[in-house]
């Protein structure tokens, strides 16, 4: 089955016509009515009212509805006041109260969706399957580049707008609006609640407190990048993000704060970190890799700043104290060590833009977990455009047995990109990708599975007894389609603090579809599920991505 099409670019007033850029926009407010009901036909209405929006917030609307029950599905609709002009009916679901005895919750986890690299099929698949409760996005929801800088969308009519590197408030608003024209992204937002944080590309590549890879607080950088300062660019990006994304302002006295936590019954605490924008020490900007390597162990370096660090460690302790069964920790970058000397050589073998470049911060996190006996930790991460599954270990401080997992304090599930290219290279072959993966699992004791070829997502199905992780790959993102391949499944048992082993391997059934797995087998079947029909077929695509 081939699916095609996009939704219209949201354009209530002509502010998104390139010929009108810079012209005055309407300041007149728009009146909207909303209603929320327990049924899809919107007959059993539990709340309704009027709200106004304007160009001040890019004609976006957010409503904090009152009187809703916990862990309950609701339907909603907007309409222009006094008219029959209505929005599609949306669906959402509230979270449980912290004290609720929830038996199971399921999450779909995404990161790194680059519009010109391909279609966002990964967003639509779990929505069509209706297989989860909440959508988790770990960042890189948009990218800041112009066409052909990073992504080649002309051939599939996916050119990011405005077609330039973005700096201004107008730019970020229009880029977000363009991404929302993807039909699968729109479908997912319409039918599921999202919990989001940003990574770097919501602002710029490899951001930190004082700049990014291509914009820093120097006069030369200011002049060459169009006369926009680091702080102004970040403010533009953050404002547009809070306008367009489904979240409230976290702290009215701290506009940059997005880090927060969610207590999902007594079952799980989801801790959403900001390891990019909030007070991050200088990172690898490509020209300073040797320097960042040299200072990577400095005690003062932090991925999140002292205020967020203190909150993070306190939240971990409070989660254990309240008796939550699991802690799911959302990190933008990969937490576990990844010796990537195969790709980068032995001079700088680690990814110093990830936690390996901030060893003191990483060690303080591990110290908090080990010394306070905080177990049942599941770290989820994105950013790397690849799939990784590891035991979480304080190497060189605690004994660790990679054969059994003894000595670990949790598990990390890191996911590939929705569309962004593999770190092993654009249009890499399956065979070459798997050779890289084999070398990586041999070079890293705690790394149990590596997979570098597929774009996709993964699901976490969490109960008090165990966490089950299911990884899915998209056969191709060059076209819009409902297909996905089950890549691998993993289990973490309550109290084990490690990946469950099955006859010497962590893969359920001892087999993965692709990549390299310690102690197990890779068997490529191309057995593909059509999430539109539920039927299975064998697919063969010559091109997985652009």
From TrEMBL:
Q: Where is the chain membrane-spanning?
A: none
Q: Where is the PhoD-like phosphatase metallophosphatase domain?
A: 107-471
Cited SUPFAM superfamilies: Metallo-dependent phosphatases
Database matches in InterPro entries: Metallo-depent_PP-like (IPR029052), PhoD-like_MPP (IPR018946), PhoD-like_sf (IPR038607), PhoD_N (IPR032093), Phospholipid_Metab_Enz (IPR052900)
Domain of life of the native organism: Eukaryota
Limits of the Phospholipase D N-terminal domain: 28-94
Question: What protein name applies here?
Answer: Putative alkaline phosphatase
Q: Write down the species.
A: Phaeomoniella chlamydospora (Phaeoacremonium chlamydosporum)
